[in-house]
Design goal:
Elements (H helix, E strand, L loop, with lengths): L5 E7 L6 H9 L7 E7 L6 H11 L3 E5 L5 H11 L4 E4 L4 E3 L3 H12 L2 E4 L8 H10 L2 H4 L3 H4 L4 E2 L4 E6 H6 L12 H11 L4 E3 L5 E3 L5 H22 L8 H18 L5 H17 L7 H25 L17
Parallel strand pairs: 1-2, 1-4, 2-3, 6-9
Antiparallel strand pairs: 4-8, 5-10, 6-8, 7-9
Helix pairs in contact: 5-13, 9-10, 10-13, 11-12, 11-13
Length: 333
Amino acid sequence: MTEPSVTIMLPVYNEIDAIEESMTSLLAQDYSGPLEIIITDGGSTDGTREYLDTISDKTMSVAVIDNPLRRQSHGLNQAASAAASTYLTRADGHTIYAHDYVSRSVDVALETNAACGGTMKPVGTTWFSRCVAAAMNSRLTMGPARFHHAQTRETVDTVYLGTFLKTDFLAIGGFRALPSGAAEDADFYARWRASGRKVVVDPAIRSTYEPRGRPGALWRQYYRYGLGKAEMLWLNGAFPSWRPLAPLGFVVALTGTITLGVFGISWIPIAVLGVAWTAVVAYGARHSGRYFPGVIAAAAIMHISYGIGVASGLIRGPSRLADVDSTPSQEIS
């Protein structure tokens, strides 16, 4: 039986520190069917484009095209438009893929008739990124999202990256460009499920992701994640799940208890909140050894920045979302 054709869609922008390992793993896929890689570059200035052009010149199955709007969602839609394949596989330049990543993804997609992906496995390479990885691996830090913790194949609300039929991708309009530049995946799968389609996670689809290596970059990333979830609420009338409410609630409680202290009412509530939060996160990080202090710091950055992002998005309201297209994007055909 002939394997269906697959296009790997890889949006990039200034990924020189990670792109070589990522591309090496994508070029080493064992998939026996037709396979191409379409990379959309958002105007990289750090050598990423030159590296990719060299790969493209040597490899007929790799194409690099411009993404002048720079956003990942635009790049993914451009890649989908250029693809002639039956299946599309979403990829990320900070991820390293097992040699059977595509073949297992296609197997699961065929067996389940669903969009599918693996679990997100963070692996750090610097001291701080290892701390972030340890925090991301803790249910008490990241919550119970199944794309982090699933041990067997199961139906879920969203997956990391993903593989899906191009016809289904077109039917729901591809990726929408949210003002935050984040949460496009969550929005895509929320609309996917709203259309009656399934999303399946299978841990046999293996890859590793390198988290942000600097506190400032981690703060900006999770702030944008929170902002994106609020944008989804204004666009879709609901959060993709209840999980964004946890960091939002923490930030509201933190703000309220600090206010009580500043106005001279009592500092006891903030002390109780701080001790309780630290105890919960510390229990989740108890096996992190010498990374323990960094795990606590990373968790604080992720929770607070995410919660502030959600709150900011709610306060901003829906006005910034007027130009977000709720119909199939003109970028894809």
